[in-house]
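task queued by scheduler; priority normal; single chain, no ligands, no partner chains; default sampling; output format set to structure tokens
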Amino acid sequence: MKIVKYETTDAVFQFALQDVVTGLNSRAPDDDTKELMDFLAVQPGDVIDIPQEKKSFLYAALDLLASNKGSVFCKACERGYQASELASFPVGAGENPLKVKVGCRDGLLNRILGRQKRMPLFGGKGYGCLEGHELISVVTWRT
């Protein structure tokens, strides 16, 4: 069975090639997905190393981890984990832009200063190991 390996500064991720291909096929077709599929199709050997330059693989890795596919080696605690053991956490305003909680200032100061300026928002999702080390985090949306 072929393995897809992706290494970051914090962790080493491993996924079955079939899981990666299935995950990429379920995504909306775009140039990055096609490029990744073409890259995977021409790689020889049992282990396919994804280069750091292929940033679009981060999104595929996030989807695979959400589906409890693959495993990860945390470099900080030097221990391996299955995807089902990882703890997910929100990045920025969370992973869903439709469920953003934005505070509202109300009162005398707001009336004096006028309407509060809206700050750009971003959000996404990440995963950490059981010891609390951040393994991967991706911003998936911006306003």
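post-processing summary
- The longest strand covers residues 134-142.
- The chain has one domain: 3-142.
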